DNA sequence: TTCATTTTGCAATTTTGTTTCATTTTTATG
DNA sequence: CATAAAAATGAAACAAAATTGCAAAATGAA
């Protein structure tokens, strides 16, 4: 369960999940039916988390990307968990990383404008007594933007 | 061209691009055929950049996520462009942000292990004379992981 | 208002995904 | 290494989804 062929399939669909199963089958040396079953199972197991369309922010316009480094006051678990949950519900927060080191969180935020960001900042950072300070890093350009995992490098861990 | 209905469609498929066009049609008040045509056009225009499956790193195992803050020596355009291109080709680099402020780049890196990261580090950072220094931030947990854009907040910019 | 253009819905068509079933392959066990 | 049970497979039938043609409706510009 979960072999080299599954890995090949993942490699293909993490780049383009609209690839017909027929085509995938050809590339990995299986019938379309077999591919379909494997994909189905990986969806059930949660190996495949979701299937999404990625929208180009440039084309849509009105988008500013900002990275935020967060420094917390207290590092009590409950407080941290509360923050995590809060972040999940905020649509402007695209990604939230809980990290080690001097700071505690890194956020990737997308907003229509700087004004909007300033507002958001008031709403979620200044209002929170757990947040000691935060650093705002304005993104000038995104040169790579994916959620791809480097499956080539995968060391076999299940058989 | 590009109206509120397109936005609704994007909102749906950026969460689940396997949603049948019939269902999308119902939600936005159009026939499946109309939805299909709109999606097709948005793909052609590049508004929809790509369609992908997202894989759960936890389930795959052998994955360590690391954020890297890069400080460059020279800020000459050619040098920066060279770096951007280099990063694109490296499969461990999932995301690359070119930023303002003290530092120049933020990278999201996924590797099978810390040992692998150390190696990567030698290969791409220490070898490069443009890179003054870099800060490694180890990710303990990812509490939100998407490429979704907050389309609710979109200010109409095209008619 | 009128004409040209665009967008739409419906129905037909095509493509893709899914299931069934008999067979093969794999795995575990004696 | 023989063999029985379990799992995975391909081919074909089937179902569901996407795509296209076409006439009608909506939209926009003059």
Automatic annotation (TrEMBL), chains A, B:
<dbReference type="InterPro" id="IPR011008">
    <property type="entry name" value="Dimeric_a/b-barrel"/>
</dbReference>
<keyword id="KW-0804">Transcription</keyword>
<dbReference type="InterPro" id="IPR019887">
    <property type="entry name" value="Tscrpt_reg_AsnC/Lrp_C"/>
</dbReference>
<dbReference type="GO" id="GO:0006355">
    <property type="term" value="P:regulation of DNA-templated transcription"/>
</dbReference>
<keyword id="KW-0805">Transcription regulation</keyword>
<dbReference type="Pfam" id="PF13412">
    <property type="entry name" value="HTH_24"/>
</dbReference>
<dbReference type="InterPro" id="IPR019888">
    <property type="entry name" value="Tscrpt_reg_AsnC-like"/>
</dbReference>
<dbReference type="InterPro" id="IPR011991">
    <property type="entry name" value="ArsR-like_HTH"/>
</dbReference>
<protein>
    <submittedName>
        <fullName>AsnC family transcriptional regulator</fullName>
    </submittedName>
</protein>
<dbReference type="InterPro" id="IPR019885">
    <property type="entry name" value="Tscrpt_reg_HTH_AsnC-type_CS"/>
</dbReference>
<keyword id="KW-0238">DNA-binding</keyword>
<dbReference type="InterPro" id="IPR036390">
    <property type="entry name" value="WH_DNA-bd_sf"/>
</dbReference>
<dbReference type="GO" id="GO:0005829">
    <property type="term" value="C:cytosol"/>
</dbReference>
<dbReference type="Pfam" id="PF01037">
    <property type="entry name" value="AsnC_trans_reg"/>
</dbReference>
<dbReference type="GO" id="GO:0043565">
    <property type="term" value="F:sequence-specific DNA binding"/>
</dbReference>
<dbReference type="InterPro" id="IPR000485">
    <property type="entry name" value="AsnC-type_HTH_dom"/>
</dbReference>
<dbReference type="InterPro" id="IPR036388">
    <property type="entry name" value="WH-like_DNA-bd_sf"/>
</dbReference>
<dbReference type="GO" id="GO:0043200">
    <property type="term" value="P:response to amino acid"/>
</dbReference>
<feature type="domain" description="HTH asnC-type">
    <location>
        <begin position="2"/>
        <end position="63"/>
    </location>
</feature>
């Amino acid at each position: 369960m979960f072999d080299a062929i599954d890995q090949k399939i993942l490699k293909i669909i993490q780049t383009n999940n609209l690839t017909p199963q027929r085509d995938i089958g050809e590339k990995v040396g299986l019938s379309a039916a077999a591919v379909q079953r494997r994909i189905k199972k990986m969806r059930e197991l949660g190996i495949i988390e979701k299937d999404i369309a990625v929208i180009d922010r440039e084309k849509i316009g009105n988008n500013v990307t900002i990275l935020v480094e967060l420094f917390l006051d207290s590092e009590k678990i409950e407080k941290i968990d509360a923050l995590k949950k809060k972040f999940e519900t905020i649509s402007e927060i695209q990604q939230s990383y809980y990290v080690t080191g001097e700071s505690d969180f890194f956020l990737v935020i997308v907003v229509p404008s700087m004004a909007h960001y300033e507002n958001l900042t008031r709403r979620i950072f200044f209002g929170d007594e757990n947040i000691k300070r935060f650093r705002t890093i304005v993104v000038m350009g995104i040169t790579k933007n994916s959620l791809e995992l480097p499956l080539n490098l995968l060391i076999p861990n299940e058989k």
